[in-house]
Amino acid sequence: MRWLSDVLKEQYGEKVYKLSLSSGCTCPNRDGTLGYGGCTFCSEGGSGDFAAETAPIENQIEEAKSRIRKKTDAKKFIAYFQSFTNTYGDIDYLRDLYTRTIARDDVVILSIGTRPDCLPREMVDMLSDLNKIKPVWIELGLQTAHDETARRVHRGYELKVFEEAYEILTGAGLSVIVHLIFGLPGEDKEDMLSSVRYLAELSLPPEGVKLQMLHILKGTQMGREYEEQPFEMMDLSSYSDLIAESIRILPKNLVIHRVTGDGPRRLLLAPLWTLDKKVVLNTIHRKIDQILIQEEER
Questions:
Q1: With contact defined as beta carbons under 8 Å apart, do 26 and 34 qualify?
Q2: Using CA atoms, how far apart are residues 6 and 37, in angstroms rounded to an integer?
Q3: Which of 7, 91, 162, 177 could form a disulfide with 139 if both were Cys (CB 3.0 to 4.6 A apart)?
Q4: Distance between CA atoms of 43 and 60, rounded to whole angstroms?
Q5: Number of C-alpha atoms within 13 angstroms, CB side, residue 209?
Q6: What is the per-residue pLDDT across 190-205, written as a single tens digit (0 to 9) for each?
Q7: What's the rounded mean pLDDT across residues 229-250?
Q8: H or E element, residue 266
Q9: Residue 295 burial (C-beta neighbours within 10 Å; 0-12, 13-18, 19+)
Q10: How does residue 290 score in pLDDT terms, banded at 50, 70 and 90?
Q11: pLDDT single digits (tens) 82-118
């Protein structure tokens, strides 16, 4: 098991902080190409509810840095383009945006959140060129390996689309970070673990993974469904067990980027226990330590 914070500290000699940025891109699942409103769990701000407003990238970066530097004297950063689909736009505009970002001395990694159905060959080639300057991470929101669940939450693409994009990205030498969401409607523990096993059993496993509990947010389609007919959600103990079991399944050299997420307090309907991130992380780490001890004793 390798934690992202430890890996970055080894590589760069100090803690590296993430800047949440916006490219100004939308999403084919929001602009009518595939649908409107995004996935049913997706809020109006997409996955980037904490990202800066769309503004000149230099302004965004300085604003994000200033917020971090209120707490720490940070010097090195990951430029994380998080909101919506950051390869769904004009390639010349995105090439200029990402080139200016990655050229900064204080940016050591460029991280781009996107969908596997928005990665045309010329876009992958452009990202591969940037990867020769500094590391480029492509963050793919798979969420689940089950097409039935994907249709239920209106993800907008089938698993085979992910597989094709994943093969192209890894073939181009790009680092891929895969996102999974636990607790999606209709999935039990075995369904969630089978998504984890799917990643673990890829011929070339991803370099990193982000795991998080489903957040049900006000204003989303899923939020409206939940308010009309609440469905059962995992408690912290069950979620911690699931995370620990997932880490046991995943390859040992895979980097764990995240084991919980941040839901905007003003929007979160459930589960409310996710709001106390310190308690959540402490509980998860205790459970992971228990499993590691048990394995050593075998």
A1: no
A2: 37
A3: 177
A4: 21
A5: 29
A6: 999 999 999 999 999 9
A7: 95
A8: none
A9: exposed
A10: confident
A11: 989 999 999 999 999 999 999 999 999 999 999 999 9
DSSP class of residue 146 equals -
What is the per-residue pLDDT across 2-31, written as a single tens digit (0 to 9) for each?
999 999 999 999 999 999 999 999 999 999
**How far apart, in whole angstroms, are the C-alpha atoms of residue 52 and residue 55?**
8
pLDDT-derived band at 252 (thresholds 50, 70, 90) equals: very high
* Nearest of 249, 277, 253 to residue 265 by alpha carbon: 277
- How many residues in the chain? 298
Cα separation, 168 vs 158, in Å, equals 16
E-strand stretches of the chain: 2-3, 17-21, 77-81, 107-114, 136-143, 175-182, 208-213, 216-217, 255-258, 268-270
**Residue 279: pLDDT above 70?**
yes
Domain 2-297 bears CATH identifier 3.80.30.30: yes
Place of tokens 């994380």: 80
Got the DSSP string for 19-55? EEE------TTTSSSS-SS-STT--TTTT-TTSPPS-
The residues with which 141 forms a beta bridge, in sequence order, are 179
Q: Tokens standing for 3? A: 């934690």
Could you give the count of Cα atoms lying within 13 Å of 58 in the half-sphere of its Cβ? Answer: 5
> What stretches of 53-207 adopt beta strand conformation (E)?
77-81, 107-114, 136-143, 175-182
Cα gap 250→191, rounded to integer Å: 15
Q: Are 237 and 187 in contact (CB under 8 A)?
A: no
Largest CA distance in the chain: 56
SS3 137: strand
pTM above 0.90, yes or no: yes
- Residues 77 and 63: their CA atoms lie apart, in Å, by 13
Parse the chain into domains and list their residue ranges: 2-297
∠ CA 12-4-95, rounded to 5°: 70
Q: Are 113 and 81 in contact (CB under 8 A)?
A: yes
